[in-house]
Amino acid sequence: MNLPFLERLAEAGVSPESVDFVCCTHLHVDHCGWNTRLVDGRWVPTFPNAKYVFSKAEYEHWKGPAGRDGFNAGVYEDSVLPVVESGQAEIIDGEGRSAMA
């Protein structure tokens, strides 16, 4: 999807650099497709200073065959893996401690 969500955030006074926490409840494309943006032909985290929190169960599920087929095809490679490779992902199993604490 090509929507002006960054422009809308800017109108609200929020820059991508000011976001410090992204919690993905699940990794369907309509919920994590905003994690990255295409810059010079490669996917990079949209929020360069944020810690992105992913459920381990979701992460494991979508990095496998499910992430390559069907409606969610490719979402792992373009919206999750670049965040993991940048070192910004925190993958939690079950209950995680609150990042707000």
Could you characterize what this model shows?
The chain is an alpha/beta fold. 30% of the residues lie in helices and 20% in strands. It contains 4 helices and 5 strands. It has helices at 5-11, 29-32, 56-63, 75-85; strands at residues 21-23, 36-39, 42-45, 51-55, 89-92. Strands 1-4-5 form a 3-stranded parallel sheet. Strands 2-3 form a two-stranded antiparallel sheet. A hairpin with a 2-residue loop joins strand 2 and strand 3 (42-45). The longest helix is centred in the C-terminal third of the chain and has 11 residues, at 75-85. The protein is globular, with a radius of gyration of 14 Å. 19% of the residues are buried. The model has no long low-confidence stretch (mean pLDDT 89).
Task: Provide key terms for this protein.
alpha/beta, 30% helix, 101 residues
Shape: globular
Amino-to-carboxy terminus distance? 34 Å
Strand tally, please? 5
Strand count, sense and barrel status of the largest sheet are: 3 strands, parallel
- What is the SS-derived class? alpha/beta
